[in-house]
Each structure stands twice: as structure tokens, then as C-alpha cells.
Amino acid sequence: MILTGKKIIEEFKKGKIDISPFDKKRITTNSYDLSLGRTIIRYKSGVIDPKCKPQHEEITIPEEGLVLEAGDFVLGHSSERIGSDFYVPIIHGKSGTARMGLFVHVTADLIDIGSHGVTTFQLYATLPVRLYHGMLIAQVSFWVPFGDIVLYKGKYQNSTGPLASLTYKDFKYDIFKNKK
Amino acid sequence: MILTGSKIKDEIKSGNIVIEPFCVEQVNPNSYNYRLGSTVKVFDGFDGDKATFKKIKIPKDGYILEPRKMYLATTKEVIGSSKYAMSLIGRSSMGRYGLFLQVSANLGHTTSKHKWTLEIVATLPIKLYPGMIIGQVSFWKNFGTVKKYDGRYGHLNHPQESFVPITQYQKI
Fold this sequence. Notes:
The complex is a heterodimer of chains A (180) and B (172). By secondary structure, chain A is mainly β.
């Protein structure tokens, strides 16, 4: 079951959904609109090796916007902090963003229950597109879980800006090995 | 409704969800992290009217994917459920590298059970290792009566290219 916009407002008021800053005008029928924060991360050239810390640079989106060329991949972030200990958030593009051929996530839309922070957007442009700070770029929906809840305690908790992948930290947890 | 990690564990025990091999450390708050199998297939052009794919065994020290090529691979695990619908996606750690694990076909039908074919597209050059944790699968409660899946892919355990007739491929 997906929450309606009205239910999102109710649950926000009860403190069961965390959206900060919250603006009632951003509520849609089934979601809440997210705006693009100011910082962008771009990986430096070369082959990404998930076992190694990736080299990247941070860019601030200028007033006149930042142009992504077709085929560019960068990380951005929501201006809002979001999360819930009671519902499962899922990130979507806005249809207006998608109609420009811009992906806001790369097959990773699902947020763990109990994860709080600004969300990192995985921005992949299929056409040249200009990004502006504050533009409404994505939306988050909230879904009812089934079963006992164990909250997220992972490595991206409490993000305040875009976070590059931390797979190199997983190495000690053996993500590259087959136990069985 | 989406199943929590605790519910996924319960349903593994009761046999309503199958994940083999199953490793409890790979359970997330509302999904399960799956691993990459050991082979990939990459589109290799046309032989007459037939699309051909080259099969590659991923070496232990990794295999580099080139941007904007399409690769097929599988999950290492057999994944399925007699009771729940599934959604198979990537994980945020790989999405942050610009790696697609499927091409807008995340939905897994109730009663299918197999090693899922992954449709992998890299937006940046990236090295993949066999058996690495690469994506996640979530389980969803159904509403309505379940009719058994009788599709062509839901029992296959190898990276399977499309059965759609070749006339529907755009020749390149």
C-alpha cells in the first residue's frame, strides 16, 4: 500500500515521516516533490574499481545552471532531509524530469526503513540538460511495510550532501567473496 | 505492502520465499542483497538475422564493463516466491557508480523461481567481480488470487537473451 498525499501530511505531523524542510505545497496525490541541492559529485576519469576509494571532485551548481552532456553521469542530492522509521520511501523522477531523458537514480530507488538524511541522486543524462539548484527534480513516495521493523544502521546514514559510493568499505564485510 | 527484512527471514523458514544460497547478513531492513553470478554475455553483432552474444567467464581479478554496452548476467542465487511478487533492482552503492542492473523490467512474477537475468548497462567504465554483492530484491504482498506464472524466462538459470523475434531488434 502506498500513502496518499493527505496521509503523508498526517504522518509528517505525527513525526512518523521526516521531511525537512517541509512545504505543504510540495505534496502531490501520492508523493512529495524533492528539489536539487547545490552540490554535484563527478567521478574522475578512469575505471571504477569497487574495491578502491573512487577519485571524485565536487562542483557547486552556478546560478546559470550546470549543463550535463548526453551520456554524463554525476551524483547530486536532495535539498531535503528525508526518512521514516514507519514507512519505506521510494525515489522516483518527476515525469517532467524524465521527459528530458534525465534519470534521477540508476536502478536503486528503494530506501531502507530507518534511513534518514538527504538522498543522493544518481543523475544520468540521455540528452543535454541544464540543472539548476532548487529545481523540482524528483519525488518520494512512502509504502506500508509488512512484518517486524528493524531499522537501517548503514554506512550512508545521516548524509548531509551527495555521497560517492562506499563499496570499498564493504570489502572488510566480504562483499566480494562467495561463502557458499 | 513491502516485506521487512524480518518477514523475509520468516518466509524463507516457512518456504514461501526461496533464496539459495541464503546468507542472513545479506538481509536489509526491507530487501535482500543478491550477488553477481560468474558469467556475462555481451552483444556481439549480427550473424545474418540472428543477434549473437559472446559468453565471458568473469575472472577472479575482475572484468571491465565498457560504458553504453548492454551486458546480460545472472544473480548467483536462485530467487523466487510462491506467495509474493518481487522487485529486483540494483543497490545504492552500485547506482552511485552509474551501474544499471536492469533496464526498466524490475517486476518478478509470483511463482517464478530461478537465477534472474540481469540487464547490465554501465554509464562509466567499471570493474565487476564474480560473486560480489551487486543488487537487491524486495518482496511484495499480493492483492487478489495468484495464477501460476507460465512465462518463458521464469525458470531459466543462465543469462538469457530476449526471445523477442529478431525482426524487432534495430540493426546497428
